[in-house]
Queue: 2 jobs
Job 1
Amino acid sequence: MFAADMRERAGDIAERVRGKRILAIGAAGSIGSNTVQTLLGFRPAAVHIVDQNENALAELVRQLRSAPEPLQVEDFRTLPLDYGAAATRQLMLAEGPYDRVLNFAAIKHVRSEKDGFSIMQMFDTNIVKQARFMGWLAESSPQADYFSVSTDKAANPVSFMGATKRIMEHVLFDPAFSQGLAGTINSARFANVAFSNGSLPQAWQYRLERGEPLACPKDIRRYFVSLEESGHICALASLFAPDRTIAIPDLDPVEHLRPLQEIAEAFLHHSGYEPALYDSEDEAKAAMARDRSKGRWPLLLTPADTGGEKPYEEFVGEGETAIEIGLSALRAVGWAGLRHGGSIARLMEQMEPMITGAPGAPRPDKEQLKSLIGSIEPGFLTAHRDSALNLDQRA
């Protein structure tokens, strides 16, 4: 989908990447690693990758070193660091200044809003560490261009994950946190990445390999892009989206928004099986061997009644307008500021005791955390889809 823009802007990409020093945070995951691979093709002078997942870093190095094209970068390093920890600040001071910094670190699963402790970690990773990191960036690489990935679920959020990424967008562009940064600051919201780590299609692959029934929620529609396309989106957005804008793919809801059940059935057909539909987990498991012997595969359809699930995706939120940015497959929405009042700095002050575990700090509670988000995004108080059920209770 984005290949035409990559070809047409290849000269501009090369001009902005060749010989530059790049720091990529949280870039051992699916989206970050594909973005890094895209940028490596334009010969930067240095690429430093920070990610807490040591195994993913090792696999990324193996993949890059084994590729047909040699790794053409003078200074390539991977570092198993927490991007919000002091070691990352020391790295930035010692190895900077960087010309371009990309941040992919996130708690990104809706299932992680199952309890107050998990949501508190989501607040810390998606919001607090973002603000801290931007301060370190101003200190070490004040001229750098900075890109931090968001999510489609930040548009009119109904989940804590989407809401924390929405707050992240505010932190990213709020002058109180971006002061001292002279480069372009931008972001991107995009669709689900098919077969990325933790994605539903990847889970179908694993279940097929293990001989287990597939599972899929009913009446849920999603946009999907490929792993390679996710790298193209972030590369193009980081390089060409205007300052204080959020790039979005130019997808049509009629043409591209697909029911997950339809995709699951297509996946089974592609794998050589006829879908056998069930609405009982026990029945689907019991039928596994029998259906498989007949060229069928159980597909468990579950109700969309767990917390935070959104029936469809959207990229443009309430009060936002999409603008053209000179690319055929990407547009952008501008940051409209804090439309409902509130203060990000005040929000940080309120979150700090809970996150640090300060003496006398209240135990993290979902309703209290929801109220904190509501102080910035009041629509979340009524839009949040809460439930006694969570995705860990589903097959």
Note: The longest helix spans residues 116-140.
Job 2
Amino acid sequence: MEGSHTVQNDYESLDVHVGQCFAVLVTADQEPKDYFVVASTRFTKREVTATGVIRYTNGKGAPSPKLPPPPVGWAWSLNQFRTFRWNLTASAARPNPQGSYKYGSVNITRTIKLANTAQKVDGKLRYAINGASYVEPTTPLKLAEYYGVADKVFKYDTIPDDPPAEITKVTMEPVVLNLTHRNFMEIIFENRETAIQSYHLCGYAFFAVAVETGQWSPEKRKNYNLLDAVSRHTIQVFPKSWAAILLSFDNCGMWNIRSEVWDRHYLGQQLYVSVVSPNKSLRDEYNMPEDTLVCGVVESMPRPPPAYT
């Protein structure tokens, strides 16, 4: 699952949300003939179905023309999420298998709650996170930061870590969170809408420790899977529900957190996190390549000296 080895379970149906991927083993132990593999949309007004055929070489008979209906409702999907568990003895060089990182015993240094909303701004639909709808600046964020002129392009931490219960106003701006290198973070995705959300974090894998209905509160931490939650890159958030992830921001750079639903991403449901190396070391981040094209406010500025040594 998204690069992680999971405990092997048997499934007749898999819920794959936007941006997610699975590898599956299909056991050919049925009566030799043709069988359908069915993919169908869920949680949409109009159901679309596609079929493929698994064919035994010595098969006799066509697949049944009657397709089984997909599972109904998203409670089934939520319950299936809870069956996905990390295989603690698989992968990695011995004696350090996947489960050698005890993420459940690391102290949380910062909690950020990200709440999505859909509202009109000047008569046009915009999607927002914590009341801010992302717009691209004319100068790339990382370029401005590398040249030391970030203050001319964007401001850090313009959205609150804990959004208000009701978001009535939406601003349109570049959104960049300033995170401390190697801090162990808790991020709560709170879905205040009636459509299922899917979030992706670039540059990192995170531990998907909980997905539940209702509103998140600190007391909900007692329900986290702090032993064998899967390390992955994308997580779904059901309607009027929340999802919690844990991770260490140990990869320096400028990284995107976004909705994997493309129209939401395009219309503002995304932000960036900046993780700067405090040691200015090439072990943490490379310097900007010499042939990098520049634009915006830095276009006429002299090339800064290498930031990392």
Note: The chain has three helices and 15 strands.
